[in-house]
Design a protein that fits this description.
Length: 271
């Protein structure tokens, strides 16, 4: 809609399609404004605080110096970095995990109290530094955890869908050797199915772009596809064997620990 009509609405889209310029945290706490401003040893000072005068809940916004694209899947690293920084800001301010980041309170609407704090535009590194120092940044590998992959939010949806669909697609390859069109169709269908499981699904165009990126990589760069069914089976067998050895070693270690504990408790023996 036109800018004039949009500015009359209570809520606005925080960013344009395909990129993130404004990082927004939804803080559903009565002291949300204070949480945004209390930055000592915690997080960078937000550019915008837009609060509800009735209950104190607020949207906290940080403006980025350089936008992060959400559709360029050859550069997932900046998107993953943005997702981790966003999670760090959420933890530092007690923000809502289920907020998707699509709509934010319109700072020009009379229903809200809006505070423009400063004009500085942040790099991701500038946002990351105080979060890391305060221990608010998520631990390495958190985006690969099952809970995040099953239902992410915000920019993390792109990374989660790419990661989940990519892992599944590597196994799907064995059904489509010699049929690249069939593989592409299967990956698109698989990506759509996974996206529908999100509480806040991605737009269809972004899902298709993710699926096509995965297909393109497999068809042009993957040794599994290039070397054919025999190489696939050999690789699969090697992976299964390695996993079996790892499980065996873990089970042996657990059995040894259990035996030692029983001996100590029952007989007072020490190994």
């Amino acid at each position: 809609m036109s800018r004039r009509r949009a500015l009359a609405r209570e809520l606005l889209e925080a960013n344009c399609a395909g990129m993130v310029n404004l990082v927004v945290i939804d803080c559903d706490e009565p002291d949300a404004e204070l949480r945004g401003l209390s930055t000592r040893d915690s997080h960078a000072l937000p550019n915008l605080i837009i609060s509800n005068p009735v209950n104190g809940h607020a949207h906290l916004g940080w403006v980025l110096a350089e936008p992060v694209t959400t559709t360029d899947y050859a550069r997932l690293k900046p998107l993953a970095y943005l997702t981790s920084v966003l999670e760090g800001l959420r933890r530092a301010t007690g923000g809502d995990r289920d907020y998707g980041g699509l709509l934010t309170k319109n700072p020009f609407h009379p229903r809200w109290n809006a505070h423009h704090v400063h004009y500085h535009r942040y790099s991701l590194d500038e946002l990351h530094a105080p979060l890391a120092a305060s221990g608010s940044m998520p631990e390495p590998g958190w985006m690969r955890r099952k809970a995040h992959l099953l239902d992410p939010s915000g920019p993390g949806r792109n990374c989660a869908l790419f990661t989940g669909a990519r892992r599944w697609a590597y196994r799907e390859v064995r059904h489509h050797f010699g049929d690249p069109d069939g593989l592409e169709a299967a990956i698109r269908a698989g990506a759509v199915e996974r996206n529908q499981g999100f509480s806040d699904p991605l737009p269809a165009a972004e899902v298709r772009a993710i699926a096509d990126s995965i297909s393109r990589w497999i068809l042009t760069r993957s040794r599994l596809w290039r070397n054919g069914p025999k190489a696939y089976e050999e690789t699969f067998h090697a992976i299964q064997t390695a996993r079996g050895h790892k499980r065996g070693e873990l089970k042996a270690a657990q059995t040894g620990q259990l035996r030692g504990r029983v001996e100590r408790e029952a007989f007072g023996w020490e190994r």
